[in-house]
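Take one record.
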Amino acid sequence: MWPEEHHFTEYGFCASAALSLAAIARRARRIRLGTGVVVLPFNHPIRVAEDYAMLDLLSDGRVDLGVGRGYQPVEFQGFGIDQGRSREIFDEALEVIRRAWNEERFDFEGQHLRFRDVEVRPRPLQKRASWSGSSYSSTAPWSVGSPTSSRIASGRSGTSSASITCCAGPGSVASPRRRWRRTRSSCATR
């Protein structure tokens, strides 16, 4: 199940993927749960780290956090955010989430975000490396919304690990469709 975040339009149905997935996690005990995507410029990264870590705990480690920058002008206008700054906001927010899940306490000084001696709890249940080509180790899988975002999430190396999925471009529909078929098959055989 991969709800996607949208606001101020009929394009999507889900303003809060975390809330939707928490309700689904309670009933569906075996499927993976993910976001297709959480738009980081619209969300505070500390809150994203806390909410999805809690969801990962509540679902026994079945959460894949997908993040992106957003693309619909009506949504940026509705939140009063300059869409031209979405890349820099995304970059900072992604770094904050990485640190929140991988460091006991951290400081962050960016153009849009500033934190001193922050300790984020809870931590996600998953403890596996998902960041290819960087010194970071993630605690949960990620998918991101564009090739550029994929490079950023993979440590700016230009390569992606198996647990980072790029959701834009010609293969954007094929990859989730293959994942769905594999998941459906594995559930049917259990």
